[in-house]
Amino acid sequence: MGRIKAIIVKEFFHILRDPRSLTLVFITPLVMIFILGYSISYDLNRIDAVVIDHAQSRWSKALSETFAANRIFVIQSRAADTGNPLSLAAAEQLLRLGKIKEIIVIPADFSRRLNAHGQSEVGLVIDGSDTNVANLVFQYTERILLEFTAAMKGSGQLLKIDTKIFFNPEARSQFFFIPGLVAVILLMISAMLTSLSIAKERETGSISLLFISPLKSGEIVLGKTLPYIMVALLDGVIILLFARFWFGIPLRGSLIVLMLFALLYIISGLALGILISTIAPSQRVAMLATLLSTMLPSFLLSGFIFPLDSLSPILQAISYIIPATYFLRIIRGVILKGAELKHFLFEGVMMIVLSMVLLAAATSKFNQQRKAVQ
Questions:
Q1: Tens-place pLDDT, residues 219-233
Q2: What is the separation, in whole angstroms, between the first and last Cα of the chain?
Q3: Measured between alpha carbons, how far is residue 211 from residues 122, 199, 202, 361, 371 in Å?
Q4: Residues 139 and 189 in one domain
Q5: Which residue among 111, 133, 166 closes a domain?
Q6: Residue 344 · residue 97 · CB < 8 Å
Q7: For residue 47, what are the β-bridge partners?
Q8: 32 and 60 assigned to the same domain
Q9: Do 241 and 304 have their domain in common?
Q10: Closest CA to 308 of 108, 98, 120, 131
């Protein structure tokens, strides 16, 4: 630990002696979130939904079967663990966890009202955390209900849609985009902080001193990573505060839970950056590689712009190795849905695994370079 402490102190001196880069680290994310927050705006191959049929009549079953027969809708009617029919409370829990996008509620007097009055209601509960997806879900559902109405006997029979939007009732797109931008920017900044570390040593020639030092390769990699956790975490706090007070993004969950997962996310970003730094021959190449490996995958393959369900199986597989894929679910779940720690155990474990793999790869690469020089 004493040797790692020496590397940490050395890195802090590097940080403090380069105020221009430090200023850039804190100003860049604010500028990006300001510009992108106003300029980005988004379009389903799959809609996971639950049909709650309180009527259990001929017409209600026909409506349920119409949704189930549609190629876009994937209807869940029973709990995965017990096999029992889903209750409304259980369906709302699935909606909160992001496992479904919509609940279709058929009231108990559905058929009676149709036969007696020629009109009945259908309730829709839609996940509004992604406003574009919510609009598409409503449009697809409305189209199916209209087709079902047209196919019913008697032209006077109509369905009235009673819609309730969860998590974002005002349908503000910024409530969905801004948390995503926070995740993307935080990964980019974290990776950039460490991506220049060893590349800078290589350019200045001081890396030879590290090669001949008694420090182990793992100690050097770890020592160059740990100091930036504080910088990146402070950067993350500033970004979140800016999003909260400038754009009015709510925080419905626990700040402690969010910061805990943000710490794991930052470590994975720093680990990615240190791996890039061991490979890149110069700081310029390291910076370019960081942008390409963080910005593009995080924007396109993490669920930020396109729902993961709409991607091809190959791209969906690639999304599992992108840290932003997991933190996007966490930050949106905590901020918009008030989700708790227990809801993101899988995502937390995956970020830990990614960090360990990246740090191990960086250590192995640095050790190879060290042996080649010696």
A1: 888 888 888 888 888
A2: 25
A3: 70, 14, 11, 17, 8
A4: no
A5: 166
A6: no
A7: 73
A8: no
A9: yes
A10: 98
DSSP 172-218: -THHHHHHHHHHHHHHHHHHHHHHTHHHHHHHHTTHHHHHTSSS-HH
Environment class of 63 (CB within 10 Å of its CB; exposed 0-12, middle 13-18, buried 19+): buried
- Structural domain total, the chain: 2
Dihedral sign of CA atoms 189, 190, 192, 196 in order: positive
Helix/strand/coil for 163: strand
Q: Helix, strand or coil for residue 125?
A: strand
For 120-174, how does the pLDDT look when each residue is reduced to its tens digit (9 = 90+)?
A: 788 899 988 777 788 888 888 888 888 887 777 554 556 777 777 777 666 677 7
Domain boundary residue, one of 166, 194, 229: 166
Pick from 160, 169, 165, 98: nearest CA to 138: 165
SS3 assignment, position 167: coil
Is residue 35 domain-shared with residue 141, that is, in the same domain?
no
Same domain, 197 and 290: yes
SS3 content of the chain, % helix, strand, coil (to 5): 65, 10, 25
Q: Which two tokens stand for residue 75?
A: 């209807």
Q: The tokens 């020639």 sit on which residue?
A: 205
Cβ atoms of residues 227 and 22 within 8 Å: no
Domain hosting residue 254, numbered range: 2-41+173-373
**Do 82 and 127 fall into the same domain?**
yes
What's the pTM? 0.70
Whether residue 108 is found in the same domain as residue 184:
no
What's the token pair of residue 330?
């966490």
Tokens of 268: 């994975």
Q: What is the CATH number of the domain that holds 79?
A: 3.40.1710.10
Secondary structure (3-state) at 41: coil
> What is Dmax (Cα atoms) for the chain?
90
pLDDT of residue 373: 65
Q: Is the CB of residue 97 less than 8 Å from the CB of residue 343?
A: yes
Q: What are phi and psi of 215, to 5 degrees?
A: -70, 140
Residues 8 and 124 in one domain: no
